[in-house]
Design goal:
Structural class: alpha+beta
Shape: globular
Number of strands: 4
Helix content: 25-40%
Number of helices: 4
Oligomer: single chain
Distance between the termini: 58 Å
Strand order of the largest sheet: 2-3-1-4
């Protein structure tokens, strides 16, 4: 490693990761607890946090998702961010005592995504997003 790179901090990126899975082998107690707490884990609970945000539908009680914010080295990329989030999801679900299977993650790198800002082409031309006509 050269002196030039030794003194530089590694570039960090922030990722939003959704980990999806399927409930598996739930005990009657676990199923009852999930159903009782379902109102706290619906659409309004969907937030990206470092500790994770669990959401699921009570009927049918089949699939779930956990949303995470992961900060890691940019050089490690989205694959590493997904793996880190899946490890967090496994730990969270085990701590809660819920069985699961088939974890898969979807990763978005917030530092490289393009954002469409208001005041762009449609604002200049007076044609908003709802305009369907094109000439």
């Amino acid at each position: 490693m050269s002196e030039e790179t030794a003194g530089q901090a590694t570039e960090q990126h922030t990722y939003r990761v959704i980990v999806r899975g399927t409930w598996d082998g739930l005990t009657e107690e676990g199923r009852a607890r999930l159903l009782a707490e379902a109102a706290d884990h619906g659409l309004t609970s969907m937030r990206f946090t470092e500790e994770g945000s669990l959401s699921y539908e009570p009927s049918p009680l089949k699939h779930f998702s956990l949303r995470y914010v992961v900060v890691s080295d940019a050089a490690d990329g989205e694959e590493m961010a997904g793996a880190l989030a899946e490890e967090r999801a496994e730990a969270t679900l085990r701590e809660l005592g819920h069985g699961f299977t088939g974890l898969k993650s979807t990763v978005t790198d917030l530092d490289t995504m393009k954002v469409n800002r208001k005041g762009g082409r449609s604002a200049r031309t007076g044609r908003g997003a709802g305009s369907a006509s094109r000439r």
